[in-house]
Amino acid sequence: MKLLGIGDNVLDDYRWRQELYPGGNSVNVPVLARRYDGSTAAYIGVLADDGAGLHFASALREEGVDISRVRVMHGISARNYIELDEAGDRHFVGNNGRETAQYQALLCLTPGDYAMMEQYDLAHTSIHSWLDAYHPAISRRVPLSLDFSGEYDRVNIAQLCPLLRFAFFSGGAASEEEVRALARTALDAGARTVVVTMGVRGSYLLEQGREHRQECVRADVVDALGAGDAFIAAFLAEYHAGGGDLADAAQKASVFAAQCCGHYGAFGHAMPHPDRCAGEQADLCFII
């Protein structure tokens, strides 16, 4: 599969470990798809030129991701501040929001970006990427996958789902009935394949004429951050390779998501937190 991620990136700031980990749904999905089965992966987005941003770019190169269309802007890398509970579940406790290069230089797609899209089987983005105005143009060039996360309502479902080949939602706090109703709403709005993940309860998948209820796979959890993105990545890769086998793709994606709970960060590549560095030693933390 040839998978292109477009949009958000962020460094997950594990303050109790004093480490930063590259992440963001639009980055994680192509990286993890490549890890899963060697899929061709690329990413279009904005990175900062600080030490953390340089580390991020280096990690993507090491993972074999094409970043030739990444913009590098002067500024501060975006961070989410993360805490984990005893079960390994992540909790976001803040971010550096408007101080970041990603916020101050929003991604604007160009003819070169659109030309790249046409070389890929699928583009994936997220509701956090601020690309709503570009979704119609993207979907005219390449099938589009979107992660709504847990931030959705009937208005943006109605607006976006007609453009989507795949629609992903997080429904961990929803009842089984609410999950099924959400999936039906998205399908009726135009998405061709709808997936609602529910954490430890597994996932629910719906297409016209078929549905599948997938149980989660037991995991030895170190860190559950990125497990949902791992599910998406493996599902897309398996669905593509298997010719649209919904149940098989969901089962294999659950196995991969469980495996990804065994390490910190969405795909590793920790760097020391800048607060650990001082004076002349600071540069040592940003060697790439």
UniProtKB/TrEMBL annotation:
<feature type="domain" description="Carbohydrate kinase PfkB">
    <location>
        <begin position="174"/>
        <end position="266"/>
    </location>
</feature>
<feature type="domain" description="Carbohydrate kinase PfkB">
    <location>
        <begin position="18"/>
        <end position="106"/>
    </location>
</feature>
<dbReference type="InterPro" id="IPR011611">
    <property type="entry name" value="PfkB_dom"/>
</dbReference>
<keyword id="KW-0808">Transferase</keyword>
<dbReference type="GO" id="GO:0016301">
    <property type="term" value="F:kinase activity"/>
</dbReference>
<protein>
    <submittedName>
        <fullName>Fructoselysine 6-kinase</fullName>
    </submittedName>
</protein>
<dbReference type="Pfam" id="PF00294">
    <property type="entry name" value="PfkB"/>
</dbReference>
<dbReference type="InterPro" id="IPR029056">
    <property type="entry name" value="Ribokinase-like"/>
</dbReference>
<keyword id="KW-0418">Kinase</keyword>
